[in-house]
Amino acid sequence: QKLDEFEIRNSETAHFFCRLIPAQCPFERDICFFGHVLLHIPPMCKLNPFYEQLVGLRFKALCYLADVCGEDIAVYC
Protein backbone atom coordinates (compact mmCIF):
# COMPACT_ATOMS: atom_id res chain seq x y z
CA GLN A 1 0.00 0.00 0.00
CA LYS A 2 2.94 2.32 0.46
CA LEU A 3 3.56 2.25 -3.28
CA ASP A 4 0.01 3.46 -3.91
CA GLU A 5 0.67 6.49 -1.69
CA PHE A 6 4.02 7.37 -3.28
CA GLU A 7 3.96 10.65 -5.21
CA ILE A 8 6.21 11.50 -8.14
CA ARG A 9 7.66 14.96 -7.55
CA ASN A 10 10.46 15.33 -10.08
CA SER A 11 11.37 14.13 -13.54
CA GLU A 12 14.47 12.22 -12.43
CA THR A 13 12.40 9.98 -10.17
CA ALA A 14 9.78 9.52 -12.90
CA HIS A 15 12.43 8.52 -15.45
CA PHE A 16 13.97 6.11 -12.93
CA PHE A 17 10.67 4.27 -12.35
CA CYS A 18 9.84 4.17 -16.06
CA ARG A 19 13.21 2.55 -16.81
CA LEU A 20 13.08 0.21 -13.81
CA ILE A 21 9.53 -1.18 -14.14
CA PRO A 22 8.88 -3.05 -17.42
CA ALA A 23 5.81 -2.22 -19.53
CA GLN A 24 4.77 -5.86 -19.66
CA CYS A 25 5.45 -8.99 -17.67
CA PRO A 26 9.02 -10.12 -18.42
CA PHE A 27 8.20 -13.78 -17.70
CA GLU A 28 5.64 -14.39 -20.47
CA ARG A 29 7.21 -16.55 -23.18
CA ASP A 30 6.38 -18.70 -26.18
CA ILE A 31 8.55 -21.80 -26.60
CA CYS A 32 8.85 -22.42 -30.34
CA PHE A 33 10.27 -25.33 -32.32
CA PHE A 34 10.75 -24.88 -36.07
CA GLY A 35 8.37 -21.93 -36.08
CA HIS A 36 5.57 -23.70 -34.18
CA VAL A 37 4.58 -22.72 -30.65
CA LEU A 38 5.01 -25.76 -28.42
CA LEU A 39 4.36 -24.11 -25.09
CA HIS A 40 3.03 -20.76 -23.94
CA ILE A 41 4.12 -19.58 -20.50
CA PRO A 42 1.45 -17.13 -19.27
CA PRO A 43 2.30 -13.87 -17.51
CA MET A 44 2.81 -14.89 -13.89
CA CYS A 45 3.08 -11.29 -12.71
CA LYS A 46 -0.68 -10.90 -12.54
CA LEU A 47 -0.80 -13.51 -9.78
CA ASN A 48 1.36 -11.27 -7.59
CA PRO A 49 -0.57 -8.35 -6.01
CA PHE A 50 2.70 -6.41 -5.65
CA TYR A 51 2.93 -6.29 -9.45
CA GLU A 52 -0.30 -4.26 -9.71
CA GLN A 53 1.18 -1.67 -7.35
CA LEU A 54 4.37 -1.48 -9.41
CA VAL A 55 2.41 -1.00 -12.63
CA GLY A 56 0.39 1.74 -10.92
CA LEU A 57 3.60 3.48 -9.87
CA ARG A 58 4.93 3.27 -13.42
CA PHE A 59 1.67 4.75 -14.70
CA LYS A 60 1.96 7.65 -12.23
CA ALA A 61 5.51 8.28 -13.44
CA LEU A 62 4.42 8.24 -17.09
CA CYS A 63 1.55 10.62 -16.35
CA TYR A 64 3.91 12.98 -14.52
CA LEU A 65 6.32 13.05 -17.44
CA ALA A 66 3.56 13.62 -19.99
CA ASP A 67 1.27 16.00 -18.09
CA VAL A 68 3.59 18.00 -15.83
CA CYS A 69 6.87 17.92 -17.78
CA GLY A 70 5.33 17.80 -21.25
CA GLU A 71 7.74 15.08 -22.35
CA ASP A 72 7.18 12.48 -25.06
CA ILE A 73 6.77 9.14 -23.29
CA ALA A 74 6.79 7.00 -26.45
CA VAL A 75 10.26 5.67 -25.58
CA TYR A 76 8.76 3.93 -22.52
CA CYS A 77 5.86 2.27 -24.35
Pick out its properties.
single chain, 77 residues, alpha+beta, two-stranded antiparallel sheet, 2 strands, 44% helix, 14% strand
Task: Look at the structure and give the mean pLDDT.
Answer: 88
Number of strands: 2
What's the helix-strand series? HHEEH
Helix content: 40-55%
Strand % is 5-15%
Q: Order of strands across the biggest sheet? A: 1-2
Largest sheet features? 2 strands, antiparallel
- Output the structural class: alpha+beta
Count of individual domains: 1
Q: What is the terminal separation in angstroms?
A: 25 Å
Number of helices: 3
Rg result = 16 Å
Describe the SSE topology.
Elements lengths: L1 H4 L5 H10 L8 E5 L2 E6 L7 H20 L9
Antiparallel strand pairs: 1-2
Describe this entry's structure for a reader.
With 77 residues, the chain is of the alpha+beta class. The protein has one domain (2-76). Helices cover 44% and strands 14% of the residues. It has helices at 2-5, 11-20, 49-68; strands spanning 29-33, 36-41. The protein has a two-stranded antiparallel ribbon. It starts with a helix and ends in a 9-residue tail after the last helix. The mean pLDDT is 88.
Gist?
This protein has 77 residues and is α+β, with helices and mostly antiparallel strands.
